[in-house]
Amino acid sequence: MLSTILSAFTVAEIRRKLLFTAALLALYRLGAHIPVPGVDIQAINTIQEQFGGGGILNLLNTFSGGGLSRIAVFALGIMPYITASIILQLLVVVLPSLEKLQKEGEVGQARITQYTRYLTVGLSFAQSIGYVFLFRSFEPSAGQPVIENFNAGTLFMIVIVLTTGCVLVMWLGELITQRGIGNGISLMIFASIVSGLPNGVQAWWTTPDQVFKVMMPFLALAVVAAVVFMQEGQRRIPIQYAKRVIGRRMSGGGQTYLPLRVNMAGVIPVIFAASIMAFPPTVGQLIQQPWAQSLSNFFNPSGAAYLVGETLFIIVFTYFYTAVTFNPVDQADNLKKYGGFIPGVRPGRPTAEFLDRILARLTFPGALYLAAVAALPTILINQTAANFYFGGTSLLIVVGVALDTMKQLEAQLMMRNYEGFLK
């Protein structure tokens, strides 16, 4: 990895892309520290504990790099864009018009991207309004108004600033994807999570459990190695292409493979499950009623009910999202159209059934792997007196984005250093 990074700086074009990416990420981190106008800085510092624990606020605050707890310009982060992208992916499966648009190639994909941007603006506007009233609900614990001189004008100003900040973050992410190295949206989440690394190191160093302090580095390396192993794990289905005669020339033929990943759903099921399971504790935090407090205590993020529910939701969402992203019937039709077939399996419907059966067997261990990584920090906190700063979702995102970025960087180097057969 280090040799790849050092080699990248020797190529002028790649060096410019790396510096461009670093500059935009620095600008993104700067916006996560600038508070919106109309808020009290001292009151913000007194409500930081509201974003701790394992609730949805902590998850959103982690993805925004701490910008949400500071009520910063980039407090929304990139999550509204990710939510809009997921919604559009699900609607493509449900709505025939969007599915037809997706099959139109680059033009259709550009139109779907435009719809995603419009939906991002709407979600950002609605989410900004909810955050304003959420911050106001923290005023009793802060002992002073969080938003000074609250009125309709102040509400509109803060909502517009937060919405504009989200749109700007989305634009920065697209610029990184086009002119930088790696996926801009993923790199922004990566930067947000890694920005909390100093707090994580401090929490590890100040833990009262000395055994955990010694074992933590080895445990972290083991978990990262397991995540890399599972993320890169795949089942290669051999594909044989028949030879075709075109005029007087024979073309086609050859053998390749179809890679089916163990974890095709990525980190999306963990985000969905964490959002759903964190809803009851968040309701109990906002509504000061006995029934809400009982519900919040029952689904406490460190309790057994939360772990069981999160595990079940992760397994269900893994199967669901895998089915959405990979269609065995379409894959079998494409193979048949281009003269490809799986040795020992008839083209058409038998191929689709074969792929569906293989995919179902691969998805189950992938779902268990996601559930285990997501539950590991909670189990460690319950069994020890330590404070495990990073959650399983954050760990999956950091490792996955690092692997994808390094692959793109290696591809850029290979493309520029390839000399071909003739020197």
Which terms would index this structure?
single chain; 2 domains; two-stranded antiparallel ribbon; globular; disordered C terminus; Preprotein translocase SecY subunit; 423 residues; mainly alpha
How is this structure best described in words?
The chain is mainly α. The chain has two domains: 195 residues, SecY subunit domain (Preprotein translocase SecY subunit), CATH 1.10.3370; 192 residues, SecY subunit domain (Preprotein translocase SecY subunit, Orthogonal Bundle), CATH 1.10.3370.10. The chain is 69% helix and 6% strand. It is built from 19 helices and five strands. The strands form two sheets. It has a three-stranded antiparallel sheet. A hairpin with a 2-residue loop joins β2 and β3. α10 crosses α19.
Brief digest:
The chain has 423 residues and is mainly alpha-helical. The chain is 69% helix and 6% strand. It has helices at residues 2-8, 12-31, 41-46, 56-63, 79-94, 96-102, 106-137, 139-142, 152-179, 184-194, 197-205, 210-232, 268-277, 279-286, 290-298, 304-325, 328-337, 349-383, 392-417; strands at 234-241, 243-246, 249-252, 255-261, 340-341.
